[in-house]
Amino acid sequence: MSSQKDLVAPADPLNLENYQPERPDWTIDQGWERYTDQEHATWRTLYQRMTKLMKGRACELFERGIKELPMDSEQIPNFVELSERLYKHSGWTVVAVPGLVPDNVFFEHLANRRFPSGCYIRRPHEMDYQEYPDVFHDIFGHIPLLMYPLMGDFIQSCGKAAVKAHQLNQTDLLERIARLYWYIVEVGLVQEEDGLRSFGAAIASSEKEILFALEDRSPNLVKFDARRVMRSEFWIYDLQQTYFVLNNMNDLIHIAQLNLESLAAELAGTPDIELGEITDEDAVIQCGTLHYHEQKQPQATAA
Predict the structure, then answer these.
(1) Is residue 12 part of a domain?
(2) C-alpha separations of 235 from 187, 228, 255 in Å
(3) Which long-range contacts link 157-160 to residues 24+ away (Cβ below 8 Å)?
(4) What DSSP character marks residue 196?
């Protein structure tokens, strides 16, 4: 086990640390016409690879979204055209941002059914796993499920709760909402009739992570419990030590209706649960070996 506080984030490939946005909402023009043939080829390779790999691994609703949107498989989608199709289904649109944006900006977009997507696409040597979210992660990973109220309404509910928490300077609540969002929207798993399936965007956009989360013995698999998740540390720059599993996708309806402010107040003062930690209260599906992270631990400590 290790704490999030012990880890060091990798260098941002876009060098946005001192970035000064031109617009208050951090939106930019996608600049679709500037994508190179190589960048479109990267999208095409990733799209073909992941649509093949997700069969029998992605949840039914995600596979349905890929077919019903539809999304351009041959080149990086134009956000304006994609938004037009998406809006007709669910009232969501896609807006371009330079990369990772401040939490308050990110959640403000979600509260208004705007999904912020980066424009950068990973390099050929990053095809299996990309530490920072890129346009393939943001579009292929997130947009298919934003077609449907189950996910779209849940994400908006997170956005609205986070905006209110930011306005009231409730930093503890903001952190707990971020954890809920991460463990559901980014790395969520669900039990379906045919077995365990993925629906999180980080998993859906990564060959390495979809195989790791569903088929490796290393990670813990724990039944989802909102209070447990809101106490759990998370780390976005690597494969997860613990994944949480919904009973079915309809659980999102109930989770979206939770009073997060009340839950956060109830959890105030309770200790955080460290990465990879299993508690006595956990309903464990798989007690992982954690071998993947144990092998990496000396490197993280040295960094």
Answers:
(1) no
(2) 11, 16, 22
(3) 157/256, 157/257, 158/107, 158/110, 158/185, 159/107, 159/108, 159/109, 159/110, 159/111, 159/112, 160/111
(4) E
Residue 27 to residue 183: CA distance in whole angstroms: 26
Task: Determine contact, residues 232/272, Cβ cutoff 8 Å.
Answer: yes
Tokens matching residue 65: 């979204």
Separation between Cα atoms, residue 202 and residue 215, nearest integer Å: 16
H helices of 4-145, where?
Answer: 37-53, 60-68, 79-90, 103-111, 135-136
Answer whether residue 33 is part of any domain: yes
Domain with 31, as residue range(s), is 22-302
Mean pLDDT of the chain: 93
Other residues' Cβ atoms within 10 Å of the Cβ of residue 33:
7
Task: Give me the pLDDT at residue 2, please.
Answer: 62
CB atoms within 10 A of CB 34: 9
Q: Is residue 16 part of a domain?
A: no
- From CA 210, how far away is CA 128, in angstroms rounded? 10
Sign of the CA dihedral running 35, 38, 44, 50: negative
DSSP SS3 for 283: coil
The 10s digit of each residue's pLDDT in 44-76 is: 999 999 999 999 999 999 999 999 998 889 999
Within a domain: 28? yes
Distance CA(138)–CA(140), nearest Å, equals 6
Confidence of residue 301 (pLDDT cuts 50, 70, 90): very low
Q: Return d(Cα 149, Cα 170) in angstroms, integer.
A: 28
Domains in the chain: how many in total?
1
Tokens of 39: 């960048």
Residue 144: helix, strand or coil by DSSP?
helix
CATH number at residue 134: 1.10.800.10
